[in-house]
Amino acid sequence: FHLGVTPSVLRARYNMTAADVGSAQNNSQAVAQFLEQYYSPADLAEFMSLYGGSFQHLSKVDRVVGTQGTGKAGLEASLDVEYIMSTGASIPTWVFTNPGRHESQEPFLRWVVLLSNMSDLPWVHTISYGDDEDSLSTAYMQRINTEFMKAGVRGLSLLFASGDSGAGCWHMTKEQNSFRPSFPASSPYVTTVGGTSFKNPFKVTYEVTDYISGGGFSNVFKMPDYQASAVAGYLKTVAATLPPKSYFNVSGRAYPDMAALSDNYWVVVNRVPVPWVSGTSASTPVVGGMFALINDKRLMKGLPVLGFLNPRLYKLKGQALFDVTEGCHLACLDEQVQGQGFCSAPAWDPVTGWGTPNYPELLTALLAP
Amino acid sequence: SGYLEYDQNVLVPADWTRVGRVNPTEKLELTFALTQQNVDVLEETLRVVSDPDSPQYGKYLQLEEVASLVRPSDVSQKAVRSWLQSHGVTNCSTVHTQDFLQCNLTAEVAEVLLPGSKFQRYLRDGHSIVRSSAPYSVPDDVAQHLDFVGGLHRFPPRGHKASKEMHRSDNT
Questions:
Q1: Would the CB atoms of A262 and B5 count as touching at under 8 Å?
Q2: Nearest to A106 among B6, B147, B150 (CB)
Q3: Which residues in A lie closer than 8 A to residue B95 (C-beta atoms)?
Q4: Which of A21, A174, A244, B114 has CA 20 to 30 A from B72's CA?
Q5: Which of A35, A101, A104 is most worth mutating to test chain B (most B CB atoms within 10 A of its CB)?
């Protein structure tokens, strides 16, 4: 029985033991924050003293890149830092903070440019932000996608939250709606993380779809080869129950790639433990911390870090992940789809990807050279 | 022609309020994304270093190697710099990969440099930003050397933290 998701609940669900903590010398992980989102060192220390008793951990951020504001801590930033340091326990953590030094700066673009200008960076980055694809220019998204390739060839793993509006809804015309993909979640060169809930919210049970979990098909990026067969399998399995074809681009990059719990978290913010925090903002740092931990073990064995994860993740075909097969996510509230987007199914699906991590099995699978 | 981001949405998100035009002398920082070389090679390199079945798996590049791969051509760099200099924009910094130029300039100069742009100030929860309310363009001979100019249109991205409390109370 539990009253919400804490580090020990996550570690129990994903089979992480007290020994699953970082120890490599040259490993680190990072979260990025944009516009007036600050974490508080005091909140982090309190969070770890309240919830970090069962595993070795760090209680301080290793490095802040950028300038933290002096205002109140933000829930988003607190959530990211507290949870990446709970699964990626004892791994030095960086916080990129981009408050927008000039009013004309784009904080996300500034982070992207920083990546191109720093030779030593953490291997894993989690980012819990995004925009609707249709609100951005194609030229911008294509170029940012190239920036993600630049990060990938350097061995960096970039994990983005899949969004919190399910398949989303775009009122294209008065008569016609379609689903609304989110970028950078829809980039083929990042790993996108969706969300799940416990079947029984007060017990460590199996997981079902979190109805807010973002997912779908890009209208900008074509489907990459690494996922073609997984997506084809899904489309075949659920052919009879798919939303109308006019709602999504069946040949686009499909996301998310995997998922983790995204519901009912406890976060300490401004010295107060806050319950019921939800969203793929929560699941993304949880997964990021685990990959940072796997990098840690690989580095200890003299192996290269995992880098861009998707080609290897899709080759696992769901091995080492808990498949999520129950539930559907949100979409347009109209006559045709009646508020329902895609539904989870055995193997990969556009709601929870391949499923949620079974840490020891994932470690074993990804420790091979 | 010259509209690098012809399909960019210039609608103001509902939670931001337009306050008015910025003073012509106000300083802006714009980011010029120069067209890169060898993007196809970069993509193929990413494929082989990320594919566990490839002999190149895990053989990652250093930042310097990435820079030599994608660095914009001399022609592109010269064209963009000359164009900026011809408008008196010289306070610029670049990055290792030389594919971004971040320049400081006044709103007045920016509006001449980027025809169509109109810089306005917007407010949300006491936070102020400057963006253009109209699409910008660049001269045709520069357009081929730039992917986009940052600092004109995109509002800060949203966080992905769900407000489930409302759903919960609805359900209750």
A1: no
A2: B150
A3: 113, 116-117
A4: B114
A5: A104
Q: What are phi and psi of B33, to 5 degrees?
A: -95, 105
Enter the ipTM: 0.95
Which helix or strand (DSSP H or E) is residue A190 part of?
none
DSSP 8-state symbol, A240: G
Cβ atoms within 10 Å of A251's Cβ, excluding its own: 12
Helix axes A75-87, A280-300, angle to 10 degrees: 30
Write out the DSSP string of A314-328.
HHTTTTTEE---S-E
* Sheet bearing B158-159, strands edge to edge: A182-183, A129-132, B158-159
Task: Dump pLDDT digits (tens) for B8-34.
Answer: 989 898 889 999 999 999 999 999 999
Structure tokens at B61: 């590049």
Chain B residues closer than 8 Å to A310 by CB: 50
Cα–Cα distance measured from residue B24 to residue B121, given in angstroms and rounded to the nearest whole number: 12
How many of the other CB atoms lie within 10 Å of CB of B6? 12
- Residue A321 carries which side chain, given as an amino acid letter? L
CB A162 within 8 A of CB A280: yes
- Could you tell me if B31 lies within 8 Å of chain A, comparing CB atoms? yes
